[in-house]
Amino acid sequence: MQALVYDQASNTLKLEEDYPKPTPAPDEALIRVHRAGICATDIEITRGYVPGYSGVLGHEFVGSVVACSSSPQLVGQRVVGEINCNDGGFSCADAVYQRNHAPGRSVLGIISRDGCMAQWLALPARNLLPVPDSLSDDLAVFCDGRLGLPIAQVLALKAPGRVTHFGRHADKMALVTGTAAQVVVNEATAAEHAGAFHLVVEASGSASSIRTALALTRAMGTLVLKTTVSLHDPAMPGWSELANDIVVNEKTLVGSRCGLMDVALSMMQQHQELRQLLAAMTHKQLPLSQGVEAMALAQTKGVLKVQLVVHDATAGVMGFFAKWTFREPILMWTFYWTTAGLTLPFAVRALIESSREPEVKNPPTVKEMIQAIKAQHTEQQQ
């Protein structure tokens, strides 16, 4: 099969024409890939982000199930998939930990599992979510960048008129609707908005931007980090600088990775604003045969999203270029914007919901929050 393969040892990225087609395990499905998205993680892997990487890139996809012995009802369905694979059958009471952090897990296109920039892939059946017919392929795969825009739009939908969107490009921020304000970041931004926000979501992918994000976070506020960052950013702040601010001002730092894909699909169905934004963010669609060129294009300044068209769901291989269908353009974004945090983890979603209330002059202390959690647990036990 065709596959876009990166090998760190030789530092080569190439399209292979006869890469082995995956053989699914008994609990896995064989998936025919329709589209694959290129994201910053794929680019960083080619820069050394995953030491020793060798295999097929890609973790954003939409495709159709062609075989699945453990869940035959999935055959023929269009699906997207969770990337974390609990290969060892790890089990615990925390469903999110089990899903995202199972010991010994493989991760699609990142750790010990070939990715989706190929004609076929294999994933556990439990990782797959059927895609509604109303959503087309290029919106189901998914800052005034790739993460920041959809996050800002979802937060604006959750807390209308209360979200301030910071970014470096006014034209890109203008794609998001319903925010209270849009601020173009400059050297004075941190000072002008110091301590102004109880909840800040940092999604720029720049190691140096955490400095500004922390400055914007009020004392005892929460900063959510939505992206991994380059290990080679010359402007990266020192840990002591960050730690001193976090400790002295009692700020909470939250890492946020993979969200809930079923919630993401539901929100896309419900909100036209999301569908319009994600469609506007797609810069270029190229065939898998031009995968190397697509990776280079995705690294070009100003380019938001590049998609690889592998199989067309309705017209056969590369049929997209012969026949446009509404279903094909949307679905590609689902994984991306789920990971982007459009469905933020439970704790952060709780903060968003609390932001609907009138302004809190004195947010609860850690002790008060612990007491509230204990009281809620006792009530549930009764």
Oligomer: single chain
Strand content: 15-25%
DSSP helix fraction: 25-40%
- Whole-number radius of gyration? 21 Å
Short description:
The protein has 382 residues and is an alpha+beta fold. It contains 14 helices and 19 strands.
How would you sum up this structure, described in words?
The protein is an alpha+beta fold and 382 residues long. Helices cover 30% and strands 24% of the residues. It is built from 14 helices and 19 strands. It has helices at 40-45, 95-101, 137-140, 148-158, 170-173, 189-192, 209-216, 239-248, 261-270, 272-281, 291-298, 334-339, 346-354, 366-381, and strands spanning 3-7, 12-16, 28-38, 54-56, 60-67, 78-81, 84-85, 106-107, 120-124, 128-130, 164-167, 181-184, 197-202, 217-225, 252-255, 282-287, 305-309, 311-312, 316-317. Strands 3, 5, 6, 9, 10, 16 and 17 form a 7-stranded mixed β-sheet that branches. Helix 7 (209-216) links the parallel strand 13 (197-202) and strand 14. The N and C termini lie far apart (57 Å). Mean pLDDT is 82; it is low at 314-361.
List the defining traits of the structure above.
three-stranded antiparallel beta sheet, single chain, alpha+beta, globular, about 375 residues, seven-stranded mixed beta sheet
